What we know:
Shape of chain B: globular
Mean pLDDT of chain B: 87
Distance between the termini of chain B: 36 Å
Number of strands of chain A: 12
Mean pLDDT of chain A: 80
Order of helices and strands of chain B: EEEEEHEEHEHEHEHE
Number of helices of chain A: 4
Order of helices and strands of chain A: HEEEEHEEHEEEEEEH
Shape of chain A: globular
Low-confidence stretches of chain A: 1-51
CATH class of the domain at 71-243 in chain A: Alpha Beta
Low-confidence stretches of chain B: 1-10
Number of domains of chain B: 2
Oligomer: heterodimer
Distance between the termini of chain A: 33 Å
Number of strands of chain B: 11
Radius of gyration of chain A: 20 Å
Structural class of chain A: mainly beta
CATH architecture of the domain at 71-243 in chain A: Alpha-Beta Complex
Radius of gyration of chain B: 18 Å
CATH superfamily of the largest domain in chain B: Nucleotide-binding domain of ferredoxin-NADP reductase (FNR) module
Largest sheet of chain A: 6 strands, mixed
Strand order of the largest sheet of chain B: 4-3-6-1-2-5
Largest sheet of chain B: 6 strands, antiparallel
Largest interface: A-B, 82 and 96 residues
Amino acid sequence: MTAATAGGTAEKFARVTARFGTHPCDVRSYAVPTVNRGRSTGVPVARIGADMSFATRGFSGRRREADTRLPPGQTLVQDWPVLSAGPTPQVDTADWELTLQDETGTDHRWSWDELLALGVEDVTVDIHCVTHWTRLDMAWRGVSLDKLFEDVESEHEFVMAHSYGGYTANLPLEDLLDGKAWIATEADGAPLTPEHGGPARLLVPHLYFWKSAKWIRGLTMMPDNDAGFWEQYGYHLYGDPWKEERYW
Amino acid sequence: MSAPPLTSVGRSRPRPAWHVATVVETRRETPTAARLTLEVPTWPGSEAGSHVDVRLTAPDGYQASRSYSIVSSTPEAQVVLAVDEQPDGEVSPFLVHEMRPGDQLELHGPLGAFFVWRPGESDRPVQLVAGGSGVVPLYAMAAAHGTADDDAPFRLLYSVRTPADVFFADELAALTGPAFSLDLVYTREAPDGWPDAVGRLTRETLAARTLPAARQPRVYVCGSTGFVETVARWLQELGHPATAIHTERFGGL
């Protein structure tokens, strides 16, 4: 399936069942229900939350670099975990197309070469995943969304990002402009691999990384802040890592 | 426009909240994993396959949080974590080796509603494909299926290093019956007299030991990134539509 084969309407995105995306879950251990033995521990449960914690006996932690660039609840990693919800779409740049649809239904389209011709920038940013990992000073290359929106007039304040494979993510338009977001084509000095969202993914580093939709194929202006894929499954509508906006 | 309608949207499910968990019991699950029984008096229950954030706090306020899949399909005051130790990990070695009855930690959840199985949602058969400790959420779906009034046939293909590494061996054996079948693939060492070759899962074995695409199974795959990438690709080559394949992976931290 390629974007070029359909009519460029919003409905073409809607036909794709959402199954893919940057997966929020790091699966390394599991819980199994057991029979309630009826025991009571008298544990105080009031006011438990981000503002109140207790020490777990014996836990000191290992990585305690006091890096002020690490948002709360995040752990620094050097590698790049792969997380998604379904098979990885394989999209050839020859077939790739990006469509930006404004509220009049007008499509602005770019082929791979046309996108790159807009001008590719090098950016170094920190990446924060909702699954608690953070990478600092990650090198990316991509095209600023300011370039894409240069000729787009819109009264709508929100954008739905659409991916090959059907994944969606909702974002406020202002979070995509003024040098805050890119269509990224390279990371760590190499073209983006399919499992990391290649050939191109959205890059919005100031929000949790699920907002940086992999396999980006389209941006649709919308009047309301409708929920995208993971947002419909309980993830936060906005996703500010500094406020720990992980879930609603 | 909005995103495609999803079957789970608008479902009432427990809202995520912070909970205090108290360790009731720990025991060895495999040579690298421990099973922790936690008492969580406020736990609202969760769907099989959803997850939870675990937070540990040091006396100086330092905190470490990790997301872990939960398997719990009914409201219970107890959950059991089966934690596989990551050799370079910060949280999992602590959970595996240091937790003792009476210790407390914080949970935030239940979280997630995508990699889940719900009784009665579909009468299509379900194929589960597990790599290593990725079996656990899939086992949980099978266990939930085993206690539910749901006739959809279940089949689990479980790739595991050695017999000792099998999670929930007794429970899986007990589930096996007309509605659930288990296929084991040993990658390093098999029991004496095991009829099949020992080695990594192949496309041929996957094809032979899973429900064919013609039966239109819903497929859940969980394991390492390499395992999931490979299996998901093979499944598509074998005719399963991408929309039928749900995946969950180990993270890289």
